[in-house]
Amino acid sequence: MSTSVLFDVPGPRARLRNNIITLVSAVVVLGVAYLLISGLADKGQLQGRLWEPFLRADVWTGMIIPGLVATLKAAALSAVLALVFGVVFGLGRLSDHAWIRRPAGAVVEFFRAIPLLLLIFFAQAGPATLSGYTVGVPAFAAVVIGLTLYNGSVLAEVFRAGVLAVPRGQSEAGYSLGLSKSGVMRLILLPQATTAMMPAIISQMVVLLKDTALGWVIAYEELLNFGLKQIPANFGNLIPSAIVISVVYIGINMALAHLATVLERRSRRSRGPAAPAGLAGPTAPAGPPSAESAGISVVADSARVE
């Protein structure tokens, strides 16, 4: 039987079985869709007057788009801060010094163990409760703080695992050239770990984007706040509004996933194999190799040895 790279090519019986399973699955999905649509129709949720507001420009410009902008603003700032938090504490957990490694691990495990909603509540109400004074924390700041602490702690583990996943021979080759630990980390480990970490990082960014909806409970006027509170309050169309807002969230997340795919492909192409010697351009004059070129050559040599 001929084989592909990842799995055995199915034979006639396997193809027939797969086709039957696909057909049955399609019938089940269509049946569920029919029951959902018929149920909405029976409850009067498909009436034109309930969907008409989403054909009006003032609903989009006055509610949905401002909510979408608020969601993206909180998600973008939280993503940047969470990445910085993750890099700092992820590398801190890899430190050789216990006085750095242990506090970093304690911070990561602490914020990773607390539900995100509690972090958002504490960020808004905590300063006033602890100080005894009326300290107003804006809802936007509370959402950003909560998202940063929780997702940054998760990303710290992603960065740590990504660096540890690089074969040990890579770092040993760098040390044999006299590179410091920071040089090995910057020139050898992080460039290789980034490609492996990219899917997990983007997945966490999608989670972060969806978690901005928790700002609704502290009156942050983001997309879900408009979709499930303000629009239904004005037009009495909760279910249609929830469906439209869900479609908007799906579109944003699909765009983010597509961006992740593009970035990952570019990262892999930029780290592709070097051109053969006969096809390479004119060589530069001989001279002492720089630290960066030495690190890159060590990675290539150790990869061939392994």
From TrEMBL:
Residues 68-256 form the ABC transmembrane type-1 domain. GO terms for biological process: amino acid transport. GO terms for molecular function: transmembrane transporter activity. Residues 271-306 are annotated as: Disordered. Pfam families: BPD_transp_1 (PF00528). Belongs to the binding-protein-dependent transport system permease family. This is Glutamate ABC transporter permease. It comes from Sphaerisporangium rufum. The lineage of its organism: Bacteria, Bacillati, Actinomycetota, Actinomycetes, Streptosporangiales.
